[in-house]
Amino acid sequence: MSFVEDPGHLSKSRLKSDLVAHKVELPPAGSKKEAYVALHLRHVDQTNAANFSSDEDDQELGVAGGDPGSAEELDPSALTDNDLKALLFKYGVKAGPILASTRAVYENKLRKLLQSAGEGESNEAENAVLYSDSDEEDVREENEDEEKELEGAQEKKAEALEPNQQQSDEMESWSAPSACSYSMPEHWSRSSRLDNDAEDKDIIVDQADTPKDSTCVKEIKDPGRDILKDLLADTKASPTGIYATPRRPIKGAALRPVQYAYPDTPVSPTTLERQEVQRRLVPVYVQVLVFFAVACILFLIFVNVEDTNSVVDLLESLSQGPDGDDERLDAASGEL
Amino acid sequence: MSTTSQKHRNFVSEPMADKPVMALAGIGDRLGHSLTEQGYDKAYVVLGQFLLLRKDTELFCYWLKDVTAANRKQADDCAQCLKDWCDAFL
């Protein structure tokens, strides 16, 4: 409940950074925590009290982990370590220990996230229009899966039916006002997809076509002003922590086949080893079989060449032990 | 693959031991002095900071630009150097 910080519960480093943030002179280095607490109470809480009257509701919301949009008014430097960590976690950022040296970094990060969240909220509804054009991952799952598929279906359908420059130019012209770098990888990836996945696309188009024809047109009609904001906001606004950079080629969205930039199967080293061993096992079996076959042949030859007496001697001497072997060998060679 | 500098390759090729902070890729004389003044006189101290930030290159870049007058490229180079070193030795 307390967005009201209880300085006694804060760590010393936290108190120190708080005081620095509020431009209060730090007590001498060897001071006890109480000195920091006292200073904190005096200075920091004063400023907080001044803010409380106007921002109370917002701050309470922030504490309750409420709407990220309203948290824009939160001052990251006024948060406790734990609150800062929790807020970052809500944005998908797993924060390490928040110490004097790392605190500034995390506050910066939180500010950036709050800003982009503020921008992202207003454009959330129209994000789908762009994401289906450009995104390779399902970054936004909430409302946009359907819309994305619609958008993508329209694109793919257009491509499959008229796999020529016209459509891609059209697509590019939509996104042209936003970012040149954005449209280029699209084009590139589109052509590469055309080369590689002609078969799959037909299937995809068939699947995508059926339910979504009519609504497709609606979705695409309004790219205009939102594309720019969405595109530029995309790179940072990723609450799940998954970043969708525009430079990557279009892959894997909705029904599209996924092309990895890396080898097809992400293989771990242990899997590789196992595969290699398996390959080697085949010849090993062959070697073992050959060995036994040769042993049998030799035994048969030996048995057939020798007289039955020597065979009996052989069998007896085998049970006698190593000394018996020598005698047997002499006997066998003598008899030969 | 991005191209790496000779400094990067030198650093990542062996355990850093007691190398000075200027052995890090992206850290030259100016930045090196700046870091040394703040107490980050050896590469392993900067490594410590990198690890505290959970080996996140983006956060490390924020930190480096905050603490020194590093530009984006220098910070990126340093972060990438440390990350590669960690991948190899940690």
From TrEMBL, chain B:
Subcellular location field: Nucleus
Organism taxonomic ancestry: Eukaryota, Metazoa, Chordata, Craniata, Vertebrata
Name listed for the protein in its UniProt record: Barrier-to-autointegration factor-like protein
SUPFAM superfamilies for the chain: Barrier-to-autointegration factor, BAF
Organism: Poecilia reticulata
Family matches, as SMART domains: BAF
Principal subcellular localisation of the protein: nucleus
GO molecular function: DNA binding
Protein keywords: Nucleus
Gene3D superfamilies linked to this entry: Barrier-to-autointegration factor, BAF (1.10.150.40)
GO BP, sorted A to Z: chromosome organization
Source organism, top-level taxon: Eukaryota
GO cellular component: condensed chromosome; nucleus
